[in-house]
Specification:
This protein has about 425 residues and is of the alpha/beta class. It has 13 helices and 12 strands. It has 2 domains: about 160 residues, 3-Layer(aba) Sandwich (Rossmann fold), CATH 3.40.50.10860; about 150 residues, Rossmann fold (3-Layer(aba) Sandwich). It is globular, with a radius of gyration of 21 Å. About 50% of the residues are buried. The structure holds glutamic acid.
């Protein structure tokens, strides 16, 4: 009989470690009682399948050599290849990328895409580097993770501070190393390079679609509904515009430069214009500014965190006065904040449903790349909307059936799908 304790955690999975990985583990623990016989396999979800740390040495424009730390984590591939973005941020860590990769597994399964979950990142503040330096950093990173990515292995995509241009460099680097143009290795590419129409807007559009579904179920009219948004990048910016165009009042927007406010609703088109020229919301004309504390305490119908993890936490959850939180970001709410908001009756549409529009259109892009047959933007948006509404409706039904939050319901659906695949595949050897 082996002395081995079945569930000894590897050192880098220290349960004491706070932050996004701790949040994710708590979410899995909360769902475990609902998994029945599949609970036997739940440990699979608590450790990533494969984690790669790479050194990214690059010559800077001034001739100096800099070294950056890069990661690619494949959390689970039971249902298909790894899928998930690459993030450039000065605070990226292995533990954060692990959590983000795990949320990708749950997200793909929650909306029933044939993917597992993965994520990548480079610990770098991209604002401090020239375009040529960013290109070299991206290419060297891609080369370093090149052995574990591929159209049938793991497919990167944009995330915080990365975009279609970064994906083009990744696709080109991978293709040069393979000796064959391989469009399906990344998604979120430029349309001229096998990218999909509608991909840039997809995450924000998905946030808007499920936000409207949740508002309808709560008896809130989108016309005139007060919306506050944290984050005004690709996700927050698009969601803000769609809510604005639908007649909602986006009363406040917060980004890394500050927070702007107008009780009668901000002119989002003017704000997008200002941000395009100035890089952030601060200093936008004809708008009041607010402190972060004031921002969180605004009375709204919809609050959309669309920035980074852990933004709704035990420090601000008591002050938050909104009916519905729609999580555009990954992991924006800590388990403590989940409990505080839940006790107040605040509805939270979890990230794994709310921001799944991006990976859904990534899936469409991947399919289009394989068939070399491209769909119209109308077709993309129509299919996206149908999939988002279906995911929202089925999650809602499970939440009612078990009398649990939308997050726990989404995790029940997703973890069941992942672990059923895990079980039926069986262990090798
Ligand atoms: N980075 C996005 C996310 O967090 C999209 C990932 C993808 O398209 O693969 O969902």
């Amino acid at each position: 009989m082996s002395e081995y304790r079945a569930h000894t955690l590897p050192s880098y999975l220290n349960p004491e470690q706070l932050g996004p990985w701790g949040t994710y583990i708590e979410q899995v623990e909360r769902v475990t009682p609902y998994l029945g016989r599949l609970g036997k396999w739940v440990e699979t979800l608590k450790r990533p399948k494969r984690s790669l740390i790479v050194d990214v040495p690059v010559e800077l424009d001034n001739g100096a050599i800099a070294h950056f730390e890069g990661y690619r984590v494949q959390h689970n591939t039971s249902r298909g290849p790894g899928k998930g973005g690459v993030r450039f941020h000065q605070e990226v860590t292995l533990a954060e990328v692990m959590a983000l990769s795990a949320w990708m597994s749950v997200k793909s399964a929650a909306v029933n895409l044939p993917f597992g979950g993965a994520k990548g990142g480079i610990r770098i503040d991209p604002r401090k580097f020239s375009r040529a330096e960013l290109e070299r950093i991206t290419r060297r990173y891609t080369s370093e993770i090149g052995t574990i990515i591929g159209p049938h292995k793991d497919i990167p995509a944009p995330d915080v501070n990365t975009n279609a241009q970064v994906m083009a460099w990744m696709m080109d680097t991978y293709s040069m190393n393979q000796g064959a143009t391989t469009t399906g290795v990344v998604t979120g590419k430029p349309v001229s390079l096998g990218g999909s129409l509608g991909r840039v807007e997809a995450t924000g559009r998905g946030v808007f679609v499920v936000g409207c579904e949740a508002a309808r179920d709560a008896g809130i009219d989108i016309q005139g509904a007060r919306v506050a948004i944290q984050g005004f990048g690709n996700v927050g910016g698009t969601a803000a515009r769609l809510f604005y165009e639908a007649g909602a009042k986006v009363i406040a927007v917060q980004d890394y430069t500050g927070c702007v406010y107008d009780a009668n609703g901000l002119n989002i088109l003017a704000l997008l214009n200002h941000v395009e020229k100035n890089g952030g919301v601060m200093g936008a004309p004809n708008m009041e500014s607010l402190t972060a504390t004031e921002f969180w305490a605004l009375e709204t119908e919809l609050l959309i965190p669309a920035a980074l993890e852990g933004q709704l936490n035990s420090d601000n959850a008591n002050a938050i006065r909104t009916r519905i939180v729609v999580e555009g970001a990954n992991g924006p709410t800590t388990p403590e904040a989940d409990d505080i908001l839940g006790a107040k009756g605040t509805i939270i549409i979890p990230d794994v449903i709310a921001n799944a529009g991006g990976v859904t259109v990534s899936y469409f892009e991947w399919v289009q790349d394989f068939s070399s047959f491209y769909w119209t933007e109308m077709e993309i948006n129509h299919r996206l909307e149908a999939m988002m509404k279906a995911a929202y409706a089925s999650t809602s039904a499970v939440a009612k059936e078990h009398n649990v939050s939308m997050r726990t319901a989404a995790f029940i659906v997703a973890c069941t799908r992942i672990l059923e695949a895990r079980e039926v595949r069986g262990l090798y050897p």
